[in-house]
């Protein structure tokens, strides 16, 4: 077991904590994982300190749990599963190391949040392809490592995008750089030679960043990451389409993304749209729900430096033609819900309180990947499951996000509940387990399983589980990195 004195040889006394009150802040989460109290919280501030901590943990057999986002946590992957663990808090590593407007790339440390990075990129004429309304304290690097879906599918070329290169301290204590950053030379020397740390594949043909993405900290600790950015538009024109028929929304969504006409593009049901836009609770929430269609498709058109008006005008004409064929109406507002308001909200992190917590105080998410053809059946399966569980179907939030150029879709169900009601907590927990099993039987692909559902998902494929454990044995032979999560 690592002692406090040993940690103080690596970081100063202000960055080692064993106070119960502080520990409770890290243990609070919206998942159903039963956390164990960590032995210490340690806050390194550079890669050298992280590497020394990892090597010391190997010598002492001490579990490490990396955390880079601030509270509140939702998925249970940042709380210890074993006793005697040390939480490695990376939130103090806040350097924005590099931004290049010409190459559209940025490099940041894991403590940098969306709220901190967006203004810095904007000053350089760049923007992020970001998830839908992340919380203010969410780490940009953590979001990319978790493969959270991004809201501009036309710039989403690979499931790992927009992540490019990373520097990682593997569980065996070795430092490694992936992609174009693997070398030769330092990052500065690579840039002087024309490199930009923008290509994710590498070294050689290997795409080793894929071993780290989605691993929930079980392979190593990332010290910085590079990612692709997009140019800020000169003009933008957002629109809405509302419908009671999911089939029409999906058909329109398919053509918008397939023809590369839109930037931001996603679908919300009326429950989620109301939770995001309501200001006075519960009055605004219920009023917005009553005036909206069951399904709302939001999309945004953009014009850049060259002929921006002409570009947007031809896009509008093409979209109106498609909408007429599909049988939907393109509008700038639905009731009191304005497309411009949604755009301004969607391009920034969520205001406090976090939108998922506004309705009842807590939210449990069920999400997976699928293809468009299966979505209606999967949505119907979820509605049947919540009905049987006695959960109000009108309270169920749904978010549909096309990914990887629209070749597939991220489908997310949001179960809002009162965390102070033990009966309701138990009901949501059972409902989640039943829903995941039923959705998997219908073809839902759970590529990012968390908590107790990870066992249900991962154990279905014995060959993949064996392969993952073998890779883990190479990179983290003493199983110190977040043991108890996923397959570890």
Features:
488 residues; alpha+beta; Uridine Diphospho-n-acetylenolpyruvylglucosamine Reductase, domain 3; Vanillyl-alcohol Oxidase, Chain A, domain 3; Alpha-Beta Plaits; 34% helix
How many distinct beta strands?
19
CATH topology of the largest domain: Uridine Diphospho-n-acetylenolpyruvylglucosamine Reductase, domain 3
Assembly type: single chain
* Measured distance between first and last alpha carbons: 20 Å
Brief overview:
With 488 residues, the protein is α+β, with helices and mostly antiparallel strands. It is built from 16 helices and 19 strands. Helix content is 34%, strand content 20%.
Please explain how this structure is put together.
By secondary structure, the chain is an alpha+beta fold. It has 3 domains: 1-232 and 452-488, Uridine Diphospho-n-acetylenolpyruvylglucosamine Reductase, domain 3 (2-Layer Sandwich); 235-346, FAD-linked oxidases, C-terminal domain (Vanillyl-alcohol Oxidase, Chain A, domain 3, 3-Layer(aba) Sandwich), CATH 3.40.462.10; 360-451, Alpha-Beta Plaits. Helices cover 34% and strands 20% of the residues. The protein contains 16 helices and 19 strands. The chain has helices spanning 4-8, 20-27, 47-60, 114-123, 140-145, 187-192, 209-212, 246-258, 270-277, 283-291, 308-326, 339-346, 375-389, 422-441, 453-458, 462-475, and strands spanning 16-17, 40-42, 64-67, 86-89, 96-100, 105-108, 126-127, 163-170, 175-177, 220-228, 230-231, 235-243, 265-269, 295-303, 333-334, 337-338, 362-370, 397-403, 408-417. The strands form 5 sheets. A 6-stranded antiparallel sheet has the order 12-14-13-18-19-17, with helices on both faces. A 5-stranded antiparallel sheet has the order 5-6-10-8-9. Helix 13 (375-389) runs antiparallel to helix 14. The longest helix is centred in the C-terminal third of the chain and has 20 residues, at 422-441. It is globular. The model has no long low-confidence stretch (mean pLDDT 95).
């Amino acid at each position: 077991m690592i002692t406090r004195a040993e940690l103080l040889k690596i970081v100063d006394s202000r960055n080692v904590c064993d106070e119960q009150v502080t520990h409770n802040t890290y243990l609070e989460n919206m998942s159903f994982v039963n956390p164990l109290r960590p032995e210490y919280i340690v806050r390194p501030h550079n890669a050298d300190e992280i590497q020394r901590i990892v090597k010391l943990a190997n010598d002492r057999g001490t579990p490490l749990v990396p955390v880079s986002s601030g509270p509140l946590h939702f998925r249970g992957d940042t709380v210890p599963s074993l006793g005697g663990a040390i939480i490695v808090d990376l939130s103090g590593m806040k350097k924005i190391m590099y931004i290049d407007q010409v190459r559209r790339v940025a490099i940041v440390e894991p403590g940098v949040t969306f709220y901190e990075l967006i203004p810095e990129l904007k000053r350089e004429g760049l923007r992020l392809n970001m998830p839908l309304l992340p919380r203010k304290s969410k780490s940009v690097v953590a979001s990319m490592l978790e493969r959270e879906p991004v809201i501009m599918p036309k710039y989403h070329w690979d499931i790992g995008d927009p992540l490019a290169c990373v520097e990682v301290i593997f569980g065996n204590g070795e430092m490694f750089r992936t992609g174009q950053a693997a070398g030769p030379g330092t990052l500065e020397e690579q840039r002087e030679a024309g490199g930009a740390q923008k290509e994710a594949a590498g070294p050689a043909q290997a795409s080793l960043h894929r071993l780290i993405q989605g691993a929930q900290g079980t392979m190593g600790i990332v010290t910085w990451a590079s990612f692709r950015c997009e140019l800020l538009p000169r003009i933008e024109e957002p629109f809405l389409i509302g419908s009671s028929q999911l089939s029409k929304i999906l058909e329109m969504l398919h053509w918008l993304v397939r023809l590369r006409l839109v930037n931001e593009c996603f679908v919300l049901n009326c429950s989620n749209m109301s939770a995001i836009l309501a200001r006075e609770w519960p009055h605004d929430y219920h009023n917005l729900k009553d005036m909206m269609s069951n399904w709302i498709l939001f999309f945004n058109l953009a014009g850049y430096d060259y002929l921006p008006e002409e570009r947007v005008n031809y896009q509008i004409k093409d979209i109106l033609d498609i909408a007429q064929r599909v049988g939907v109406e393109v509008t700038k507002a639905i009731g009191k819900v304005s497309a411009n308001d949604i755009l301004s909200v969607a391009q920034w992190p969520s205001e406090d309180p976090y939108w998922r917590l506004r309705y009842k105080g807590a939210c449990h998410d069920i999400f997976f990947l699928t293809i468009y053809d299966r979505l209606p059946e999967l949505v119907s399966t979820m509605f049947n499951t919540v009905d049987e569980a006695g959960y109000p179907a009108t309270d169920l939030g749904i978010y549909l996000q096309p990914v990887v150029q629209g070749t597939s879709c991220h489908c997310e169900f949001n179960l809002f509940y009162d965390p102070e009601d033990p009966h309701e907590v138990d009901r949501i927990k059972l409902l989640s387990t039943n829903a995941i099993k039923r959705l998997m039987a219908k073809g839902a692909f759970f590529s990012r399983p968390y908590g107790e559902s990870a066992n249900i998902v991962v154990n279905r494929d014995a060959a993949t589980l064996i392969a993952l454990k073998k890779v883990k044995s190479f990179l983290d032979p003493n199983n110190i990195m977040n043991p108890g999560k996923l397959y570890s």
